[in-house]
Specification:
Layout: H1 13-30, H2 40-45, E1 47-48, E2 52-57, H3 59-64, E3 75-87, E4 90-100, E5 103-109, H4 112-122, E6 131-136, E7 141-147, E8 153-157, H5 170-194
């Protein structure tokens, strides 16, 4: 559910999230038959969880970097935040927010894939800590970074056979991402240059 109301800007992401929650309630009230996996009452009693910063990995950096100490070192554009709406400890929906010179706005509501992944992660020992969220364009990879007990960063992802329940080190994750990025570039590089391929 994308939001495109350029007049609604807020001073903080949290204020935009509350507006997104109200928008979702209103949509469900006006159209109870809409299937978003949640009902108006659940949304009404939900609370905003900890926001995850959404960062897009720079695809060109991924192609050209054989070794990196973290996904953050390959960061491209910030895509704002995604904030889970929690009901009884479960993620029932998400509100995505982004900012520009005018302030914070709701950029999207809902994301079933991320909702399901966050619920899986919340059932692990890593679900209670702070997470960072990375998206890798062209690969459909969603990766969650968490701080492990030893202070290192571990990555949780369902991409390419990895597990959302068991963190993996960058040294294991990066070669697979890079391999797939190089393969994608080889197959679709010319189309990307011409702007004829949607990421």
């Amino acid at each position: 559910m994308n939001q495109d109301n350029p007049t609604q800007r807020f001073g903080t992401s949290a204020e935009a999230v509350e507006q997104g929650k109200r928008d979702l309630q209103e949509a469900l009230r006006l159209n109870p038959a809409i299937n978003l996996g949640v009902d108006e009452a659940q949304v009404g009693k939900s609370s905003a969880g900890q926001a995850l910063a959404v960062t897009e990995v720079d695809f060109q950096k991924l192609l050209s970097t054989e070794g990196a100490v973290s996904l953050a070192s390959l960061a491209g554009a910030s895509r704002g935040n995604t904030t889970p709406l929690l009901d009884d400890g479960r993620v029932i929906s998400l509100v995505e927010t982004s900012s520009d010179a005018g302030g914070w706005k709701v950029s999207a509501i809902g994301n079933q894939a991320v909702r399901e992944e966050l619920n899986q992660i919340r059932a692990t020992p890593y679900g209670g800590g702070e997470l960072a969220y990375f998206e890798v364009p062209n690969l459909d990879a969603r990766i969650y970074a968490t701080t492990l007990e030893d202070g290192s960063t571990g990555y949780l992802t369902g991409y390419d056979g990895f597990s959302l329940r068991q963190p993996v080190a960058i040294e294991e994750l990066l070669p697979r991402l890079r391999r797939d990025a190089l393969e994608f570039q080889e197959r679709h590089g010319e189309e990307l240059k011409r702007g004829k391929l949607v990421r």
